[in-house]
Amino acid sequence: MEIALLKENPDLPHVLILGGGFAGLYAAKRLSDAPVCVTVVDRRNHHLFQPMLYQVATAGLNPSDIASPIRSILRKAKNTEVLLAEVAAIDVTARQVRFTDGSNQSYDYLIVATGARHSYFGHDQWEGLAPGLKSLEDALDIRRRVLLAFERAERETDPVRRHAYLTFVVVGGGPTGVEMAGAVAEIRRYALRRDFRRIDPAEATVMLLEGGPRLLPSYPESLGVAAKQKLRRLGVEVRTETLVTDIRHGSVSAAGWTIPTQTVIWAAGNTGSPILKSLGTPLDRMGRAVVEPDCTIPGHPEVFVLGDAAAFDHQEGGGLPGICPVAIQMGQYAARTIEGDLAGRPRRAFSYWDKGQLAVIGRGQAVADIWKLHFGGFLAWLIWIFVHVFFLIGFRNRVLVLLQWAWSYVTYSRGARLITEEVQAPGASLRSVGISAPSP
Amino acid sequence: MEIALLKENPDLPHVLILGGGFAGLYAAKRLSDAPVCVTVVDRRNHHLFQPMLYQVATAGLNPSDIASPIRSILRKAKNTEVLLAEVAAIDVTARQVRFTDGSNQSYDYLIVATGARHSYFGHDQWEGLAPGLKSLEDALDIRRRVLLAFERAERETDPVRRHAYLTFVVVGGGPTGVEMAGAVAEIRRYALRRDFRRIDPAEATVMLLEGGPRLLPSYPESLGVAAKQKLRRLGVEVRTETLVTDIRHGSVSAAGWTIPTQTVIWAAGNTGSPILKSLGTPLDRMGRAVVEPDCTIPGHPEVFVLGDAAAFDHQEGGGLPGICPVAIQMGQYAARTIEGDLAGRPRRAFSYWDKGQLAVIGRGQAVADIWKLHFGGFLAWLIWIFVHVFFLIGFRNRVLVLLQWAWSYVTYSRGARLITEEVQAPGASLRSVGISAPSP
Prior knowledge:
2 copies of one chain form a homodimer. By secondary structure, chain A is α/β, with parallel strands linked by helices. Among the domains of chain A are: 4-43 and 85-118 and 271-343, 3-Layer(bba) Sandwich (FAD/NAD(P)-binding domain), CATH 3.50.50; 124-268, 3-Layer(bba) Sandwich (FAD/NAD(P)-binding domain), CATH 3.50.50.100. The first copy, chain A, is built from 12 helices and 25 strands. Chain A has helices spanning 4-8, 22-30, 53-57, 70-73, 136-155, 159-165, 175-191, 221-233, 324-343, 378-391, 395-411, 430-435; strands spanning 14-18, 37-42, 46-48, 67-69, 80-84, 87-91, 96-99, 104-106, 109-112, 116-118, 167-171, 205-209, 236-239, 244-248, 251-254, 257-260, 263-266, 270-272, 289-290, 296-297, 300-305, 310-311, 357-362, 365-370, 373-377. In chain A, the strands form 8 sheets. Chain A has a 6-stranded mixed beta sheet. In chain A, α2 runs parallel beside α9 and α5 (136-155) runs antiparallel to α6. Chain A is elongated, with a radius of gyration of 22 Å. At the A-B interface, β4, β5, α5, α6 and α11 of A face β4, β5, α5, α6 and α11 of B.
């Protein structure tokens, strides 16, 4: 792989950004006017607004409502190239990144913003049974599983099996788990209400299992309590201190219970992207690279690790949560720091400006922790909507998403209730097709 | 499989409808007030507005813009059940349909509206190389192939290979082929224009190959000529009398030419659904069941075959085209005929009321043949938009689709430019999951 812009400007420092999430994108945007060449590499062609991914998984939004091509977002950044490629290894000594197609790319600055993936805490066999929610593919997979469970229940005559089809278990009581449980509870009560003839979707069981003592552990305690109450009002069975010990085809075991279910959704754990291991730097318990106060790894001031990939422990009050504002601020910080280096300014430590956290529970219900104010209900929900729509990248998306939400709110319907099969792609899987470049 | 409604009303005649396309859906809607029990069976959960499928394939619309759950469409038809199942065989003598999960269903009236699938004229090995456009999965597959071709071209340094990535061949000059070629030509010229750094998408080659002497063979000749001119103005290389003789990985052979290309789209031939063979009735050259003037098969006045599955040759001017208005009118006719039977009225022959045909070529360009008037250009395009949006099922879809088109028209952008991978579903493919009902 050769970088065309770099060939034309061999004297400019080259900033290589791995990952087109919030951290990578905000770094690239900020660097678009700096005297550098920038390359953004991602193994997907789109930036994804992960906080609303559960809306795709629960048929409220379409994939393209929450995703935009990285190329289009960075279209005006004339010093920036976007490449669809997958990283195989990072060699910080040689200052080189190797890709899975065998090509190499050297850099002057490296920004590692490769995010997190699910962690099954050593039970990798659970992955196929209990999908997590990180990518559009994950979301469409969960959507299909949830909708198919209702379809199968409609055809099932055995009452025990029918109950298993109508039992949905969400594992993990963080924001994703709370949002998923709330959304599935709403679908069954409203969107599907009159669609079936033999089953009553409203009677489906939705369970939220959390191993710790309360929901939303990274939020103030009062909000965890409020979320639990609101979920219960939606008919979700919330069980805290209920650690999942086994997941098999057809059942979940937790705290002595065995729950017959056909649909398990995993929202319990994250781990840093595996590529971080090749940095040769200490990782924390969650597989994230431990970074210095300037978000670089020890001994390599030219290698930044940002967002969910970074373990940043230099702020009072402990580590930073894995949320968008952290990633955005880190991306902007890394770009400013590189600009400062080039201008000969000394580095300043990164400092996170905490504007708060929001989690949505359902129609008109959310909890908010904003500038030390803790509150729930309709106002929190309105703030959630506007903050999230505001951060959606692309004006078209914002307008359409607001319209769809308004429509769903009035009608209780969910328009994207489609069960699509996986595409039977000929030959190799597309991941490999997208990355290797076979001869024509 | 037991039909619950039927068990409650054992004396009512049972109408079994195979297929939730236009013919099946309009038959079911019309029968919703009749003294019958209706079961609609489809192997997908959604009705699909096929005339706009090319818009999904070319990133203009989202899947849920042109598809709605069959259950929701028929929600108010209280005498109607919807089942997600796949037909294995039809036994017209025993008046029974067998499903792939082994269950059987008897009927008093059978409506076979299973549509058509691609025909590769005996070259089934071409299917993996040149996907056709019938389902949402097909459309997403084509969208991914087209977008990936540009991504690969951006990374390719060898100019010969790069040209192959930037060559798109559409096979077949009917409405689907014309629409696909026009849409790909527009994407490359407008939507992708400023997204790449090393390639100029506008220089991509789009070819439309037609074996016969002209485009749009089922339309008046002047419109075929007009379509050819308009496509050429968009930069499409149109070649008529160019029969494809071979498709291989990396090239298409036609009329002595060998065209290096990585992306071939098949829009050349249709054949009736394979299930029609089990009817034991004569099929025409295109695999469609030859029907009587009342759309039933010979000797079985209780078995209707409708829409793309039927070869109806009783109208002056030859057979009927495979378009929505034919399917809709046949569906309504079959429902009326069943109602008439129950009321003791004699049957009348089906007669198609031809309101015309439309084909869209690009932004502001279409051709129309309406009530013997033949015209092209902006007016035809406006009529195309309003007719198609009007027939979109679901009010939400109509409003959103109009808004998205308005937005695309003003900005030349295409919002759904996402490359999603196939989902790595654990275990069996979802088609089998959706149909068989494994024990929990």
